């Protein structure tokens, strides 16, 4: 191949792995070989944790986070929190605490947690969480949708 790129290498590795035929010095590949061909990043872990959480398998997702050799980011914890919200799982506090540690000034973290508490009947906790927004002088910006045409983008605000 005259010109090798990430695309050509990815295609070659993908083809070999799909057929179980990665050969290196005439040795048949095993799970370690395939694992070394991958370089897991936090985005990959986030996708797997998200899949676990969407199935309601919170414990499996949480265990994976604990075994990661990479520091979880806000996107990963936000994914966990979102799934907890959908399923009403109160382990949401772990995700939210991690999000607060990463960005305590982001009001959406408090708003979502208060909504989860309210949804599960925890009105006292929901009220306490909402009060934190006022105590910390955080601003809650309204949600919006974007409408795009060829020539412009229009922001449509959601009614409060």
Automatic annotation (TrEMBL):
Protein name: PPR domain-containing protein
Domain of life: Eukaryota
Keywords: Repeat
Regions that span the bilayer: none
Gene Ontology molecular-function annotations: RNA binding
GO process terms (BP): RNA modification
Native source organism of the sequence: Cephalotus follicularis
């Amino acid at each position: 191949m005259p010109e090798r790129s990430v695309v050509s290498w990815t295609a070659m590795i993908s083809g070999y792995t799909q057929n179980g035929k990665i050969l290196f010095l005439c040795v048949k590949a095993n799970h370690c070989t395939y694992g070394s061909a991958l370089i897991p990043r936090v985005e990959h872990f986030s996708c797997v944790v998200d899949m676990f959480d969407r199935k309601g398998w919170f414990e499996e997702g949480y265990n994976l986070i604990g075994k990661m050799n990479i520091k979880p980011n806000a996107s990963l914890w936000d994914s966990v929190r979102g799934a907890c919200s959908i399923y009403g799982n109160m382990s949401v506090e772990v995700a939210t605490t991690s999000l607060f540690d990463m960005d305590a000034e982001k009001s959406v973290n408090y708003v979502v947690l208060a909504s989860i508490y309210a949804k599960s009947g925890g009105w006292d906790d929901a009220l306490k969480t909402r009060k934190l927004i006022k105590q910390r002088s955080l601003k809650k910006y309204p949600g919006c949708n974007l409408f795009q045409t060829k020539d412009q983008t229009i922001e449509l605000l959601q009614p409060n």
